[in-house]
Every structure is written in C-alpha cells, then in structure tokens.
Description:
With about 300 residues, the protein is of the alpha/beta class.
Amino acid sequence: MTISIGFVGLGNMGNPMAMNILKKGFALSVFDLNTQAMRNLVEAGAKGAASAAEVIANADVLFTSLPGTPEVEPFYLGAGGAVEKAKSGAILVDLSSVLPSTPRKIEAAAKARGLRFLEAPVSGGVTGASAATLAVMTGGDASVLERVQPLLEAIGKNIYHVGPAGAANTIKAINNMMSTVNACAMMEGLIVGLKAGLDLKTMADIIKTSSGNSNALARVDRALIPRNFDPGFKVALMNKDLETFHTIAKDVHVPVSFSNMAQHYQQAALAAGLGEKDTSVIFTLIEQRAGLGNGKP
Length: 297
C-alpha cells in the first residue's frame, strides 16, 4: 500500500526537507501559506494542496516545519487542527523547534484520539537540509520513530532517540545556544584581530588548525568575507531558540551566562531591523562598535 505523506511549512528548512522526501519516491502532498514556496515541489511531482486542512485529512504521515510554539500549538491543538482532523491511525511528526512543553501537549492530545506523535527537531541549517545530512533529534515513543525512520532518513543521516516528548527540543535548544555562543565568540575574536591589523582569511586558516577551531569558522568563507548574510539561520529564529533555552534553564534552576551575551547580540540585531538576516550579520554590529569599516550588512 502506498503511504500518503503530507508536509506543511515550506520555508528555508521545510522546502528542502520536503524535496528530499519526494526524491525518495514517496507520494507527497504539500502546503504553505506562501503559495510560491510550493512551486518547485509541485514541478518535481508533489501535489500542491489548497489548504493545510486538505493535507491533514489525507496524510498517513504528516510532517510540519513551522517557526515556533505560537504557530505549532494552534496548528495541532486548535479547533479544526491536525489532532482533531487527522485521519484514523495517522502519525504526526513535528520538525519545528519549540518549547519542550509543546510536544508534551500535542502527544497527550494525539494519544487521546488514537493518533501517534513524534517531535523531531533538526540541526544542520539550510545547507544540511538541502544535502539531506541533518541531525534529527526525536522525542516520544520509540515505536513511532521506528515507523517513520525511513522517512527521516530521507532528510538526515544522524537520527537520535533522545527520550520522552520534550527531550528532543531540550537538546535542540542546548545545541543552538552552544552554536551561537561559539559564533559570537569567534566573531568578537576576529574583529579584535582585524582592528590589530591582521587579515581575516589568514586568521581563520590558522585557527582552523589550532585549538580555537569550531564549526563557526565556516562562516568566514561563507558569509563574512563575501558579506553574504542571506539566511541560513535567521536572527529572529535564533533569538526564539535562546528564549527557549533560557526557559528550560530557569525551569531546572541552572544559572547561565554566556547564552545571555549571545542573546544580547540577537536583540541588537533585531533592534537594527536585521531579524530576517542570517545570524552571521552580528559581525557587522561588532564592526560598528569597534569603529571598523562601514558596519553595513
């Protein structure tokens, strides 16, 4: 029997993830509020639905990739939402980054209707989404993961079962916090070097072979030298993920500090109207404060 796959939310991450599922030969129906976001998928063979409700009603497995908790909870739990309208026996998989409380609510509501739910936030950015090399962190019943594993393998090479619902979004928030702290520290260090008269590319090449190396240095060639701040990972989304991290830290009574400085930079970028830019745009804010260049993205 052919399994019908639905995918709602075709933004920077959702679109390439849906495309990789389609490339594996699965029957795919898609929807996004921005109808232009569906075009390439429809041209590649997906069915473009007229509404999210149409996708929900017909999907044996429903994937969602939405901005955050304010979008995910009403989509699943609101009147006429996915939990209420999903077909009998459907599996619901949310790929979004949300508060850990959100998947717990959805899982409970889904179980009450005889549905199955899995949280599955991803990491690896747009590059990983396009290349199908994402890390996929799952929370919920391991038997549900087993059912959808072939689909998840279409979007990522590294699939982890972290624990019960909420656990995957906890580690996702931790990962994103560490990623942006590393990036902000890297950019501060490079700005010090630039102001001291060093060459940006030379600094990056040296640090890559030294103890200061991290994945953040990939931004030098990709974004900082060419001044390319198209998203990747938007400032507004990183700010949201840091809010999630801080909520978790408060809930478990862990004092944190580095994450607060990283969010200071996200807030400064939001105040400057840069929320839709890649988080690497923070480099320009540090330039401005250091009195270097024109400080323009």
